[in-house]
Amino acid sequence: MKQNIETRYAASPREVKQMDTQGLRDEFLVEDLFTEDNVKLVYSHYDRYVIGGVSPVNKAISLETIDQLKSSYFLERRELGVINVGEAGSVSVDGQVYELGHKEALYIGKGNKEIIFSSKSSSNPALFYINSTPAHKTYPTKKIGLDDVEVVELGTPETSNARTIRKYIVNSVVDVCQLQMGMTTLKSGSVWNTMPAHVHDRRMEVYFYLDVPQDQAVSHFMGEPTETRHVWMANHQAIISPPWSIHSGAGTSSYTFIWGMAGENLDYGDMDVCAINELR
Ligand SMILES: O=C(O)C(=O)C[C@H](O)C(=O)CO
Ligand SMILES: [Zn+2]
């Protein structure tokens, strides 16, 4: 089994200002997360965040360590969040099997050696979106189903930003060292996520777009609030947001995205909100 691995370095606002379309895409966009019977991993130097996709179709896939970690197994010094964006599947964690249905999540604590991903049916495979961060302590592995999440409603139809935020891996739901993950779904007719936009210099963030119809797209906005850039994104693509950058998007239809964060604190509400009419 191949693990397709990329490294992304951290870039400063000064460098990013000079980037053209392809430069921005090469630096921040994560494509091809799901290829049959493969693992794709992107190791980012922002908070040493790992973004990945695991797509077991005809066989089970084990998560192996990568050179970037210099560890004997992947979770030797890390924790892992998994959200299944495909059909039914399971994750075996040192022999304990967790069944994950569509949009169910699993938090896996540091120190677990053998992580094996499987689909229930090769004709309707699971798609496991994964995020991983360095961890200093072992917390118990926990499945987070749709009934376990914290739900927040934000926005209004009048401002085209009515959406539901589901917090899966946050410290009020599961004990974590630094990883946070959740899912935001736009209501029909609304297109703007994370508007008003914000930054949080204490945490980097990654957005992974899903439920984007094949002939539609999301224009994702990034950059300093007064120096924004956009990146056009398709279904099942992710984008890295540096801590100094806004992360917001407008779709040509409604859609869903998974956000994941790591850094200085676990305070979801620690955001510096940008006035909409001051964005440039
Ligand atoms: O639509 C939103 O607003 C979000 O989903 C915001 C993210 O959760 C986020 O950026 C958290 O920092
Ligand atoms: Zn944010």
Description:
By secondary structure, the protein is mainly beta. The chain folds into 2 domains: 3-12 and 31-144, pectin degrading enzyme 5-keto 4- deoxyuronate isomerase, domain 1 (Jelly Rolls, Sandwich), CATH 2.60.120; 150-278, Jelly Rolls. It is built from 2 helices and 24 strands. It starts with a strand and ends in a 7-residue tail after the last strand. The relative contact order is 0.17. The mean pLDDT is 98. It binds ligand LADIRMRS and zinc ion (ZN). Residues 154, 163, 165, 182, 184, 193-194, 200, 205, 247, 259, 261, 271 line the site of the ligand O=C(O)C(=O)C[C@H](O)C(=O)CO.
Q: Please tell me what the overall shape is.
A: globular
Distance between the termini: 46 Å
What's the pLDDT, averaged over the residues? Answer: 98
- Fold-level CATH name of the largest domain: Jelly Rolls
Task: List the ions, cofactors and other small molecules found in this model.
Answer: ligand LADIRMRS, zinc ion
Structural class, from helix and strand content?
mainly beta
Strand content: 35-45%
Number of distinct helices: 2
Give a short account of the largest sheet: 7 strands, mixed
**CATH architecture name of the largest domain:** Sandwich
Q: Spatial order of the strands in the main sheet?
A: 1-3-4-11-6-9-12
Please count the beta strands (DSSP E, at least 2 residues each). Answer: 24
Quick summary:
This protein has helices at residues 13-17, 21-28, and strands at residues 3-8, 29-30, 38-44, 50-55, 61-62, 78-84, 89-93, 96-100, 105-108, 115-119, 128-134, 142-144, 150-154, 163-169, 180-186, 192-193, 198-199, 203-210, 218-224, 227-233, 238-241, 246-251, 256-263, 272-273. The chain is mainly beta and 280 residues long.
